[in-house]
Amino acid sequence: MSEYFAFQWHITDDCDQRCKHCYIFSENNCKSLDSMNWEQMQEVLAACEDFCQVYHRLPYFYITGGDPILHPNFWRLLELLKSKSIPFTILGNPFHLNDEVCRRMKAYGCQKYQLSLDGMRETHDWFRKPGSFDLTLEKIGCLKRAGIRAVIMTTVSGTNIKEIPDIIDTVVAHKADVFAFARYCPTSEEKDTGMTPMEYRELLAVCDKKFKEHEAAGCETYFNKKDHLWTLYEYETGAFQIPKDAKESVIYGGCNCGNCHITILPNGDIYACRRVQNSKVANIFEDRLADVWVCQMEQYHDYDKFKKCAKCELKAWCRGCPAVASGAHGDFYDADPLCWKEVPGYEGGNS
Fold first, then answer.
1. Which 3 state secondary structure label does DSSP give 257?
2. Which partner from 4, 182, 237, 265 sits 20 to 30 angstroms from 350, CA to CA?
3. Coil vs helix vs strand at 52
C-alpha cells in the first residue's frame, strides 16, 4: 500500500444513530447535518486525483459519514470510482446491509467494510442503538458472502475496557476478517479516557495473549495492532527491536496525521485527522489540496515538538496517539495520557 495515499472522505453527516462518542456531534449536539451535493463530490474527487498526480501517489478512499449509504448519490459515487479503477473501503453501519446491497458494493469495487463493536450486547447497544450488536454480527456474514472483507473496529474506554477480551472471542467466532481497536479520544468537556496508563498496558498484554491463542488455533481473523502504543509494548517485551541501520532523521512509523492520510468533511473542510477536533487546515473548495499539503499541513510534521516523544528512542516508530493527547490536553504535541513510559513506579519489563 506504500504507493497509495489515503483519503478519509465523509460524504454526509446523516446517520441512523447518535453514538455517545461521535465526533460529529461532540461539540454541538444541535448542529445541522452537512452533506455534499453531486457537483461537490465530483470536485473533491478531481482535487484528490490532482493531489496524487502532483505527488506521484495513487488514491485510496475510505468512504464514510455519518452513514455513507444514506447519501442520495452513494451508488453514483461508487460507480464513478469504479470507472476510474480507484479502490475504496466503506466505514458505515449495519442497518441497511443485506446480501443484495453487499453484492452491489462488491461489484463496484468495495474491498472492505468497517463495522463497530463497542462492547458486548448491553454496552454496545447503550453506546449506539438498541439491537445494533446482534445486527452487526449478523451482517459480517452478508459482507463475507459477497466477497467483501468484514472489519470490526472497537473504541476502547474505561466503560468497555474489561469487555475487550470477550469482544475478541466474539469477533473470531463470527469469522470477521480483521479486528482492531483504537482509544476513545476525549471530546467536549470530557477530558478523561477513563483508563490509567497501567490499566491500558495490562489490556495490551491480555489482548496479545488472546491474539496468539487464536492465531495458534488457526482463526481466520487478522488482528491489526492499530494503536501505536503497541510499539512501546512490543519493544518492552522484545517483539519489536530498533533496526541497527535506522537513520536518526527518518520517521519510520507511528501516527500518519499529516503524513500519508487526510480527512475531508461533508462541508469541504480538510482535517489533518478527524479525531483531532481542532485540526482543520483548509477547505477543499477554497484551497488546492496539493498546496495545502506542503503549507498548512506542515504544522503536524515537527516531530521534535513532541513534549515526551521527542526524547524517546521510539520517536521514529511510535509517538502514541496525538489525537488522544490533543483531546485530553488541547495540544497535539503533548504527551499521550496513556503512555506508561516513565510513569512513577514503573520500570518496564516483560509481561
1. strand
2. 182
3. helix
Q: Which of 114, 144, 120 is nearest to 133 (CA)?
A: 120
CA–CA distance, 241 with 235 (Å, rounded to integer)? 6
Locate 52 and state its grid cell: 496524487
- Report the predicted TM-score, pTM, of the whole model to 2 decimal places: 0.93
269-271 and 261-264: which strand pairing? Answer: antiparallel
Write the CB contacts of 100 (distance below 8 Å, at least 6 apart in sequence).
none
Mean pLDDT of 148-177: 97
Determine the pLDDT at residue 223: 98
Identify the CA nearest to 66 among candidates 24, 105, 32. 24
Helix, strand or coil, per DSSP, at residue 111: strand
Closest CA to 203 of 169, 161, 248, 249: 161
213: cell is 491463542
Contact yes or no for 157/21 (Cβ under 8 A): yes
**pLDDT, tens digit, 9 for 90 and up, residues 101-123:** 999 999 999 999 999 999 999 99
